[in-house]
Amino acid sequence: MTIKEQLASMEAKLDHMHKDLTKNKQDIEVLKAKMNMGTGGIKAIALFGGILITITFMITKLLGIK
Fold first, then answer.
1. How many domains does the chain have?
2. pLDDT in tens, 3-36
3. What is the full DSSP assignment across 1-66?
4. How many CA atoms lie within 13 A of 43 on its CB side?
């Protein structure tokens, strides 16, 4: 292999690595967005459950149910 061929081969490999890194970056951004949506959903369920428990507790205390 001549030096020009070796450089062309290295350039092709670097281009391939750049494409892979770009795709990985995009995949990471998508995963971050999905994780943030999941975290928001868990917080909403916890808040709704807390409100529901509070209302149930207040009604049972008000009516004197044990």
1. 1
2. 999 999 999 999 999 999 999 999 999 999 888 8
3. --HHHHHHHHHHHHHHHHHHHHHHHHHHHHHHHHHHHHHHHHHHHHHHHHHHHHHHHHHHHHHT--
4. 6
- Only one residue has tokens 């750049």, namely 18
* Cα within 13 Å of Cα(57), Cβ side: 6
Widest CA span of the chain, in angstroms?
Answer: 92
Domain encompassing residue 66:
1-66
Residue reference for tokens 């205390």: 61
pLDDT above 80 for 65: no
Query: What distance in Å separates the CA atoms of residue 53 and residue 51, rounded to the nearest whole number?
Result: 5
